[in-house]
Amino acid sequence: MFEAKYSAPEVDLFGERDSPATDDDWLAPVADGPVVATMTLPGSKSITNRELVLSALADSPSRLRAPLHSRDSDNMVQALRSLGTSIDAAPASGDYGDDWIVAPAEELTGSTTIECGLAGTVMRFVPAVAALALGPTVFDADDAARGRPMSGLVSGLQALGVDVDASSGGSLPFTVHGTGSVTGGSLEIDASQSSQFVSGLLLSAPRFDDGIHLRHSGERLPSVPHIEMTLDALRRRGVDAVSDGEGSWRVAPGPIAGRDVRIESDLSNAAPFLAAAVATGGRVTITGWPESTTQVGADLADLLPLFGAQVTVEGDRITVTGPTEISGVDLDLTTGGELAPALAALAALATGPSTIRGIGHIRHHETDRLAALATEINRLGGDVEELDDGLSITPRPLSAGRWLSYHDHRMATAGAIIGLVVEGVRIEDIATTAKTLPEFPTLWRGMVEARSA
Prior knowledge:
Elements: E1 26-27, E2 36-40, H1 45-57, E3 62-65, H2 71-82, E4 86-90, E5 99-103, E6 112-115, H3 120-131, E7 134-140, H4 151-159, E8 163-165, E9 174-179, E10 185-189, H5 196-204, E11 212-216, H6 224-235, E12 241-245, E13 248-251, E14 260-262, H7 271-280, E15 283-287, H8 300-303, E16 310-314, E17 317-321, E18 330-332, H9 340-348, E19 354-357, H10 369-379, E20 383-386, E21 391-394, E22 401-403, H11 409-419, E23 425-427, H12 440-449
Parallel strand pairs: 2-15, 3-14, 6-7, 10-11, 18-19, 22-23
Antiparallel strand pairs: 1-23, 3-5, 4-5, 7-9, 8-9, 11-13, 12-13, 15-17, 16-17, 19-21, 20-21
């Protein structure tokens, strides 16, 4: 009989009381045996929001089939509508909500305020679109997002001649004074803090008079696969978009074609579900797994075996079968930092120490994820040390307690992974998962309860 591990009573840490529970806390379901489940997940947030931007800038309407319906994508829809784009519902092509028909505006118009919420793709992709609109557009966000890095994008737009009022020093809020056109041309920016600075400029670049030749000037460029995703999306719409060297990209001016596109399932959102198989020694299958993709979540097929799991991919199905004991790992996640919270949760449950490197940039995601992961795992009795660009994790027996989410969907799901085998883990603000997967609590509980092989 499988029993939940590390079910010791709640204890004080560092002389402080455990964070008090509230009525809104979500008691993470504990697996009373190896989880066995098959599921299909909603569409990719990264692809959905790129395709929404390109559809808004296209020369004809587009249909997005099985897009993600979440807070991030809804914020993008509202942002583009406020600039004059028509986005209407159409009969659903998938299991998770309507399709979208996107009709570009004859002329983009500003004189509006865009609320970005917590969506990095909105705050970093839409300012260049607003520069192509007529009139001022104010960009603001939730308090938790106002400190996220924006200076690389703001300075880049200013270098292209766009009037950006960024009195806050490059962070939100700021105002883009659009004139209806951007000259474009050669540009150098430091995108060390976020690859979204690059993608945000490349997506609108076909509409710049001279396109763009963009170069990265910093030492390290994180999340390069997300830039490849942007280039791929541009090329699929007939745009001449290439990487012409390390840290250098060219996008030629020209039309962006309308497109009928089916959105791939979100492979990064698959991380906690596949990690559940590893944590419990179970078996989880995700359907709708693409044969080829630019999503970094595809790396899970190579990463999870390092923890001792078996992974098979057959057709459009990936199956992860967990080990009897979880191995410690030494990982470089420079290209896949968004997978770090789920993998750090597994490392905290392993039988040996782990080091996860190359993720210094995730300090600037929805929260400082390195500090948050260390704090929350240690709060439960773990032993995690922050490194300059990662985490050193030494497994310790974990106990019940409250897990704070920091308004970060991936922090919430990391806590749920630990809660599978640690009784009494209470997730603060599980609703934050609505950022990219509103169905997470229901899907997670259903997975835990799906006990038949």
